[in-house]
């Protein structure tokens, strides 16, 4: 009878340790490069890694502006991003990634905005100088006055 109680507990512990081990392996530049190899694009397209950690953390959504820059919302503070234990005390960020040398990989990253009012923002739309962010239950409007 006691074995029946122990077996589910051992199974849960084994599953938890496996999950923790796998989640630790899913982060970082090397893991991102390996995961990118698993993408299967249409035969006429190519999938390549554009950016990874530490340039951005836990991306949630993205948009591409008229200049070809990639705007990304991060969700590091969402559920405390437990796999890495990373917390941004100043709040999550809206990042702008740019390929300045034309090699197909981001080599410049800037923080457009950081604050606790955009924690776990799940939507972004860049329309000229306006940046619309959806972060439940709010929709926020930012203006990029200096073109950064």
Automatic annotation (TrEMBL):
<protein>
    <recommendedName>
        <fullName>DUF7133 domain-containing protein</fullName>
    </recommendedName>
</protein>
<dbReference type="InterPro" id="IPR055557">
    <property type="entry name" value="DUF7133"/>
</dbReference>
<dbReference type="Pfam" id="PF23500">
    <property type="entry name" value="DUF7133"/>
</dbReference>
<feature type="domain" description="DUF7133">
    <location>
        <begin position="37"/>
        <end position="148"/>
    </location>
</feature>
